[in-house]
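Methods — Computational structure assignment.
A single polypeptide chain was analysed. Its primary sequence is given first, followed by the predicted tertiary structure written as structure tokens.
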Amino acid sequence: MGWDADRRRRALFTAAALILQLACQIGRAADNTYQLRANVAPGSHQQVKVVIETAGDLKLNSDGTEVKRLPIKVEANLAYVERTLAASQGLATLKVVRNYAQADAHLRLRDTELNHRLRDDRRLIVAESTEKQATTFSPLGPLTREELELIDVPASGLSLAALLPLRVVKVEQSWQQPDWAVAKLLGLDIVSQHDVTGTLTEVKDNIAVISLQGKVVGAIDGVTSEIELTGKLNFDLKQRAVTWLALGYKENRAIGHAQPGFEIAGKVRMVAAPIRSATEVNDQALANLPTKAAAGSTLIDFVAETAGYGLMHDRRWNVMVDRHDATILRLVDRGDLIAQCNISRLPQLAKGEQLTLEAFQEDVKKTLGKNFSQIVEASQEVSDNGIRTLRVIVSGTTSDLPIQWTYYHLSDDAGNRAALVFTIEGNLVERFAQIDRELIAAFRFQAGKQPTPAESKGPELKSAARPDDSSTQAK
């Protein structure tokens, strides 16, 4: 009997040890330290809701002298299910697929109100990131700039579990956040310096509360940004998941070549809950869809609704002007202004009439005037979608600076016409040799506000901005 009692005591002791070990595995160690390690692995799912509120001023400097401020207020609401497709240890590399049940934003820009939402046929989104970059795209087709900005919110390319410590910590113990995690949390391309820390402030009812605080200096698209943040997140020790985030921040971003600066205060509130699965992102939903970013999948879809044309372009192109009579885009690469493209819808010619390549070249010469040097190349072709393309490359100078202009005249059998002018400094031509062809390849005419018929039959290039026109010239 004594031997049996001793065996029972040993069995109870072993069971107690196993229970203690299990408790340690879900977060707490025997010495009052906590292991805040999340269960983020391929196949894990969660349901997420996000609310973003920002208010402040846009900073504009259209004339190059005086900075003007324009009040802006934004509220966005997002709700989605998410499936992890790939995740590295430490979560520096992450790929997730999301299906958005809600994605909309309301903007008030002084007295103007705008509403943006994700189209129903673009609600499936893939977000992938590494330490150096993050990419968001839809495998269903190109996003518009408004759609991309709508879903590209703080922490959109980051697993919040990446903000957790890699070692066990005690209450009131702090740790430095890695540069790449801070960059992804705030949507920056690079962080040059920061002092953002996480601190385990308390553990109650199996919820570890972590505070975030610090200042950041970084850049996006080559534009400097200074940010001060404070926040809290909850880590559920039983579910091994970050379930809540509240982040407040103040950001002062400089004015870029193609985008206004701003000085804003923002709030982000995020609620998340692990789920077993979601049919919206299962294997059947992803069948035959590209889940890896490629050159075509990251293009931006732009439509000039009043002018009646559309195109897809590299994300480095930014629309500066969108009017019924003109569209102006600028290509900015890592903060440097590379090129400008001016687009205009032209009046229709008489039925059966076409502009000849010879007449187009003469019109280009007249447009450039004294800035014209020589025609480098002239060609014509018909694209797969039936658009007749005249292309003339011209070298010249403006203010003693060598410039290359590439002029396009586009037309179709229905009489639709458009003119495009690409302007680029001569020393950048080889580096960006195909920027014009990439944009032209996806150009399309569509229904819109039609221009008035032409009164004369002669060639026209009303969209060809002269080099001394500072409002439309790349600088």
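Note: The CA atoms of residues 126 and 137 lie 6 Å apart.
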